[in-house]
């Protein structure tokens, strides 16, 4: 069973449709027992970091996500959902995150257009179950104004470049993050979603 955590913030239906295109039927839920028991849990998100953390905490889902991560069952954050996995964010002041992975979410300081919006190449730091089967010229779709800094290099799977090195896929054991939108990334995105299913194995 795949669940998409429904906490009132995010591109939930887009993510659901992405999984359905590869023949999977995820469940949208905010029920703690269902989230904890699922084979794979997805934490989506768009919008502001502090608002998302407020929604998680007000529903008690921050503790559920941490409990799930500590149980060794796979959990995957997408876009803002990935950012929430880290220690803190500087968006609209400093906000504490779920603190499952080392790093801080910071604003782009670049002459390039912000938000970073559009298709960018993925460069692979290492081979991993999450990025297997991707072409060398894999492009994925990003929409974000903040990126991860101060992370543990051992957690970096793939990155892109937007004036700076931008972590795009991270993984520490059962905790995975994708800064981009796999559900909007065509065939490459579909392969990535299929790879997530393999985490359950």
Describe this structure in words.
There is one protein chain. By secondary structure, the protein is α/β, with parallel strands linked by helices. The protein has a single domain (2-199), classed as Rossmann fold. Helix content is 27%, strand content 32%. It has 6 helices and 14 strands. It has helices at residues 12-21, 32-37, 49-58, 61-70, 80-84, 186-199, and strands at 2-5, 27-29, 40-43, 75-78, 86-89, 95-96, 101-107, 116-121, 123-124, 139-144, 146-149, 156-161, 165-172, 175-178. The longest helix has 14 residues, at 186-199.
Q: Which spans of ≥5 residues are poorly predicted at pLDDT below 50?
A: none
Helix content: 25-40%
CATH topology: Rossmann fold
For CATH, the homologous superfamily is named as Class I glutamine amidotransferase (GATase) domain
Q: How is the largest sheet built, in terms of strand order?
A: 2-1-3-4-14-13-12-9
Strand segment tally: 14
What spatial form do the alpha-carbon principal axes imply? globular
Computed Rg: 15 Å
> Would you list the SSEs in sequence order as H and E?
EHEHEHHEHEEEEEEEEEEH
| Overall CATH class | Alpha Beta
Give the helix/strand class: alpha/beta
CATH architecture: 3-Layer(aba) Sandwich
Q: State which percent range the strand residues make up.
A: 25-35%
Q: Report, as a whole number of angstroms, the end-to-end distance.
A: 12 Å
Q: Average the pLDDT over all residues and give the rounded result.
A: 96
Biggest beta sheet summary: 8 strands, mixed
Number of domains: 1
- How many alpha or pi helices? 6
């Amino acid at each position: 069973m795949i669940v998409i955590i429904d906490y009132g913030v995010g591109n939930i239906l887009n993510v659901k449709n992405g999984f359905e295109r590869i023949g999977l039927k995820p469940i949208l839920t905010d029920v703690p027992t269902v989230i904890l028991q699922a084979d794979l849990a997805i934490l989506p998100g768009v919008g502001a970091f502090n608002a998302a953390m407020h929604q998680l905490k007000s529903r008690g889902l921050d503790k559920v996500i941490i409990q799930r991560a500590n149980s060794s069952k796979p959990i995957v954050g997408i876009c803002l959902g990935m950012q929430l996995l880290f220690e803190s964010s500087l968006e609209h002041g400093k906000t504490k995150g779920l603190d499952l992975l080392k790093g801080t979410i910071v604003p782009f300081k670049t002459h390039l257009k912000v938000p970073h919006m559009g298709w960018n190449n993925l460069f692979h730091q290492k081979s991993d179950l999450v990025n297997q089967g991707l072409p060398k010229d894999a492009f994925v779709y990003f929409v974000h104004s903040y990126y991860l800094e101060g992370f543990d290099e051992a957690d970096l799977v793939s990155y892109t470049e937007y004036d700076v090195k931008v972590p795009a896929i991270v993984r520490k054991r059962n905790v995975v993050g994708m800064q981009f939108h796999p559900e909007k990334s065509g065939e490459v995105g579909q392969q990535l979603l299929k790879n997530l299913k393999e985490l359950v194995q």
